[in-house]
Design brief:
heterodimer; A: Rna Polymerase Sigma Factor, Chain: A; Arc Repressor Mutant, subunit A; 2 domains; 9 helices; 2 strands; about 70% helix; globular; B: about 280 residues; mainly alpha; Serine Threonine Protein Phosphatase 5, Tetratricopeptide repeat
Chain lengths: ~190, ~280
Amino acid sequence: MTPALEMEVPEVRPATGSTVTRSERLRSIVDSHLDFLGRSLRRLGVAEPAVEDAAQQALMVLARRIDDVPEGKEQAFLFGTALRVASDYRKKQNRSPERADSEALESRASPDLSPEQLLDGARARALLDVVLDEMPVELRSIFILYELEDMTMAAIAEVVDLPPGTVASRLRRARATFEATVSRLRRRGRSR
Amino acid sequence: MKELRPLKDSSRSAASRALLHAARRDALPEGARARAIGALGIGTGVAAAGAATTTAAKASTVLLAKWIAIGAVGAVTAAASVGYVVPYVVHRATAQAASIHEPPIVAAVGAAPPIRTLPAHVAVASVDTIPLPPAPVQAFAPVEPSRPKDPQIAFVRAPPTAATPVKSKPTEDTTLAASSSAPESPPASAASERPDSLSIQLETLSRVRGALSGHDASHALVLLDAFAQRNPSSSLAEEATVLRVEALSGAGRATEARALAESFSARHPASPYLDRVRQAMQSP
């Protein structure tokens, strides 16, 4: 076991007055946000087989910085970390494309959005990756939180630490980009 | 701030809707929580570990079958899903974590209530036939719009209430489609049963496609009838109708196929499936 994992658990006393150990707080965050973290990583471009490792990386960062994370900002911290983990992942994938998810690669080769492709759940999911990859990350992050995570714009503003007006305008741009990409791929599929 | 209707429900493009619905499959593999707890070295709490094991064991039978079916897990993960920790994951993640930049800490916004402890998958497992990724609307309580600044609230858009059901009645597609080949189908039982989860719906339509490619149009129609009956307001109704046109055509029921194709074209003039429907009519 590496030294980093032998975590001492000194007690911290937050403003609420209750006694919460560092371990208890970490466990609570895992309980509350691990699923969100995993979904976010996946939708930010991490291939399915790599998502669990990526989630553990993000949690390790959280564990090291736990005392700096204000209560109520855990989800925002994890999403910020997920953005960086996913960015590193995508860079690595670009350097070694042979490691990329084969389903996604295959879809990239023929993203024709035919009914057959859309009716195949796994294929449709891989095609969603292709469409999302067309978006700049600042639009993609807002898009996935709103469209796939069902968060309100106010909540997203908290998570990404942006003014609500910026979130709203980026969301509109992201939706337009998404629809335009889907439409383009459809046309391409028909012309084949 | 005016919330927009999500594209997965409101987009005029069936392709957009299908792609966005496909993201409902997104979820960590079973047992990921237990492994994460182990990786963080905080797994000594008896209550937490016990809860994780129990929950994992409850859902593991169905979920593991699903994951193994798509080749995502092997025996190692299967063992871990009932509470064991896989040491190599810990070391690998630790090494990688060292290379990750850390995000800036944003300022706290006011005092927050204690953190919610939430075994989200418990609620989800009881809702769906096969547990899908925990949807936020199920994982968190609906939020009062009057408290938008509370930093602890998950700010999830409230699901449609009972007073305003989004999909309370069958769509034209499924109603017409079902009646075109199975007018005797009793609609009452469909309304009383819970619709299939999206993954099961996709699987059913996949079987329909299999039947069609095996030139077994009558079996495809049986599957489609069952699909329409169980899922009167499916988001895949358009796709089901397209398959039904092909099945009717393949079964030699050209008149019904043509009627369904024409009504489909009239109702969905911008559908990406129009070409496909026309093609089915041209090749009886």
